[in-house]
Design brief:
Layout lengths: L1 H22 L3 E5 L3 H12 L3 E5 L14 E4 L6 H9 L5 E2 L8 E4 L2 E3 L1 H7 L1 H19 L11 H6 L4 H8 L3 H14 L8 H10 L5 H4 L2 E4 L2 H11 L3 E2 L6 E4 L4 E5 L2 E5 L1 E4 L3 H4 L3 E3 L4 H9 L2 E2 L1 E8 L14 E3 L5 E5 L6 E8 H6 L5 H15 L3 H4 E8 L10 E2 L5 H5 L10 E3 L12 H19 L13 H15 L4 H6 L15 H6 L4 H7 L52 H6 L31
Parallel strand pairs: 1-2, 1-12, 2-8, 5-16, 9-13, 12-21
Antiparallel strand pairs: 3-7, 4-7, 5-6, 9-10, 10-11, 14-20, 15-18, 15-19, 16-17, 17-18
Helix pairs in contact: 2-11, 2-18, 4-5, 5-8, 5-9
The structure holds flavin-adenine dinucleotide (FAD).
Flavin-adenine dinucleotide binds next to α2, β15 and α18.
Length: about 625
């Protein structure tokens, strides 16, 4: 009897002590299941944190692209990406040599860089001049982490890239190709801060295209997202976060009427999506202005599928191809999805204008253009997939692309935690925004910051941008004006710069009404008359008539979700008693994925009237 009593006491003690150990576990919530959020969750979990990842959509991976076989850089250019690929044993294929430098599609004819020099020397020469001038501009930035280091550089942030390009007086074709490259990589030149463009050029200075397009990732970045998903214990999809409350003890996150609690939070959603989440206490004015005002580049993707290649095999079109015909950047997919596919990236204002059209109308217009150059296009066309990142409420754009004046106001703003929240996402990485590398780096940084916060470190409040005071007081224009014959003259090829031109609002109405010339300008290039394409009237009237009606192909899910139960409307009581006794009831209980492991636990915070969202 006495022995049994001792045993019982021992069990109670073990229970209490293991409960106490669990009570010390640090908890974190990660909001957003793109590569940034996945990285933050993975890194925190690896450090022993209990992490719950909440993703709004039914699938994971966020903005991972439509391409089934993405080009990626080598470990010299994308070290973090390559580390994770190695760690998760995700295989890559070396890129064939001919795709490692960009190609050009000029009026339907394909040119490699070498062809261009031989056959279109004036265009090749102009592109070289542009690259040299850009390189000079990039060199003027000593530290890309502090691009506005002096008032002259600060002044560049007040200008847009289009104004700068105008000064170069490039011939029409070269300008069209340059425009296309810039709008594909960032955004419309007229919407882009010249300082941001220079800073990014500084980051990639002396990085060769060969290193940036060194390998192919079969299956694309969703494969990497899935590799992270497999490592994580608690993921809850279809869980759009609607509100966050921070207090001295922790954070409470609401998904509709269901609440989760944790000690810290990583917010890994794009700015437009963050703007929709109610924060208590509210963000300060600078953050609120950044949420509203930071420019995102627009880039939508169409994959057109053909029974067989309709382009000349000689063209070997692959890698990045910049067209002067408004088709945007395009590349040929290997036949991973059957047949022969071409992915067309419509970017900048071309993409904005096409928001007025439905997917099929948009595809029809693009197909018309391809058909004009490749007459078998219609007959061989079998279907399409479209992805519009810019109008997706969870994304609100393709990626960060600072507009004029925005570096001055918002530089590295999101790298600093706000109380218990650290921010992640491509837009929070100062060196590699808009890339997988940037997203992964930001997830690592945010995970580190959460640990620092837990260790008692405090982060400085936002500082004013360097030289902001002087330049904001009008020094920008003065510097440009004074500097005749100096810095700016060299960069611009003479003369001082004009006042910053404002980006023109996109005339969606014009697109809707399809005023004469709209599509001609869009696809024929704004700078010169349309070449080779038939005149266009209304979108509907000119829709191509494929031999057999193409079956629209439903966009493939970004990534197949594995082993995660959709959020239940009722909270699932899932915690062992000992754990609950020592943890506040509302902490999220990290749960293993359904196939595996245990039932997702979600704790209601306030659930008196409403249903779970
Ligand atoms: C067309 C295109 C082509 C690209 N090409 C390349 C390329 O070739 N190379 C390269 O390196 N990079 C490329 N990128 C960039 C790269 O894909 C992104 O930088 C990266 O995927 C961004 O990851 P993220 O985690 O920051 O954001 P996201 O992937 O957008 O993740 C954010 C997640 O948050 C979720 N979310 C939003 N709101 C909420 C909410 N309220 N509650 C819960 N979840 C929410 C979203 O659903 C999403 O899953 C490309 C991007 C695009 C759009």
């Amino acid at each position: 009897m006495a022995a049994a009593w001792v045993r019982l006491c021992a069990l109670v003690l073990i229970g209490v002590s293991s409960g106490a150990a669990l009570a010390k576990d640090k908890t974190a919530i990660v909001v957003g299941g793109g590569l940034a959020g996945l990285t933050a969750a993975y890194e925190l979990q690896a450090k022993g944190w209990q992490v719950t990842l909440l993703e709004a959509k039914s699938g994971m991976g966020g903005r991972s692209g439509l391409a089934t076989s993405e080009w990626i850089g080598n470990s010299k250019t994308q070290p973090v990406l390559n580390q994770y690929l190695e760690r998760f044993k995700v295989g890559t294929l070396a890129a064939p040599e001919f795709v490692r430098t960009p190609g050009y599609l000029i009026d339907g004819e394909y040119f490699s860089a070498t062809d261009l020099v031989a056959k279109q020397p004036a265009t090749a020469e102009a592109l070289k001049r542009y690259e040299k001038t850009l390189d000079d501009l990039a060199r003027s930035i000593e530290d890309p982490l502090n691009p506005a280091a002096n008032s002259t550089l600060f002044a560049l942030d007040q200008m847009n890239v289009s104004t700068w390009l105008d000064k170069l007086q490039l011939p029409a074709t070269a300008r069209q190709l340059v425009n296309q490259q810039i709008r594909t990589r960032y955004d419309e030149p007229s919407r882009l801060s010249l300082l941001y463009f220079a800073q990014q050029s500084r980051v990639y200075r002396n990085v060769s295209d060969r290193d940036l397009r060194a390998a192919r990732l079969p299956g694309g970045s969703p494969v990497l997202a899935q590799a992270f998903v497999k490592q994580l214990k608690t993921i809850k999809t279809s869980s759009p976060v609607t509100a966050i409350v921070q207090d001295k003890d922790g954070v409470t996150v609401k998904v509709g009427a269901v609440g989760y609690q944790a000690d810290y939070l990583v917010m890994a959603v794009p700015l437009r999506a963050l703007a929709k989440i109610q924060m208590t206490p509210g963000l300060d004015n600078q953050h609120l202005a950044a949420l509203k005002g930071t420019n995102y580049g627009w880039r939508d993707q169409l994959m057109l599928k053909f029974k067989n290649p309709v382009w000349e095999s000689r063209a070997r079109m692959s890698g990045e191809i910049f067209s002067n015909t408004g088709l945007g950047m395009l590349w040929i997919e290997p036949a991973l999805k059957g047949g022969a596919n071409v992915v067309i990236n419509l970017s900048g204002d071309n993409a904005r204008l096409l928001q007025a059209f439905g997917d099929k109308q948009m595809v029809d217009q693009v197909l018309i253009r391809l058909h004009a150059f490749y007459p078998q296009a219609r007959g061989a066309f079998t279907g399409y997939e479209v992805r519009r990142y810019s109008t997706d409420a969870g994304m609100g754009g393709a990626y960060l692309a600072y507009g004029p004046g925005q570096i001055s106001k918002y530089w590295r703003l999101w790298e600093r935690p706000v109380q218990r929240i650290a921010f992640a996402g491509e837009h929070t990485d100062a060196l590699y925004p808009g890339t997988l590398e940037g997203a992964l780096r930001s997830g690592q940084r945010a995970a580190g910051q959460v640990q620092d916060l837990a260790a008692g470190k405090s982060f400085d409040p936002a500082k004013a941008a360097p030289v902001a005071a002087a330049a904001a007081a009008g020094a920008a224009g003065a510097v440009a004006a004074k500097d005749k014959g100096g810095f700016f003259s060299n960069l611009f090829g003479g003369g001082s710069d004009k006042a910053p031109a404002k980006a023109e609002p996109v005339k969606v109405e014009e697109a809707k009404q399809d005023k004469p010339g709209f599509f001609s300008r869009l696809f024929g290039g704004a700078d010169k008359p349309e070449v080779k394409t038939a005149p266009i009237a209304k979108a509907e009237e000119v829709a191509p008539a494929p031999a057999a009606a193409p079956a629209p192909v439903a966009p493939a899910p970004v990534a197949k979700e594995e082993a995660v139960k959709p959020a239940a409307t009722k909270p699932a009581p899932a915690k062992p008693a000992a754990k609950q006794a020592h943890k506040p009831a509302a902490k999220p209980a990290p749960v293993k994925k359904a196939t595996a492991k245990s039932e997702p636990a979600k704790k209601p915070v306030v659930n008196s009237q409403a249903k779970a969202g």
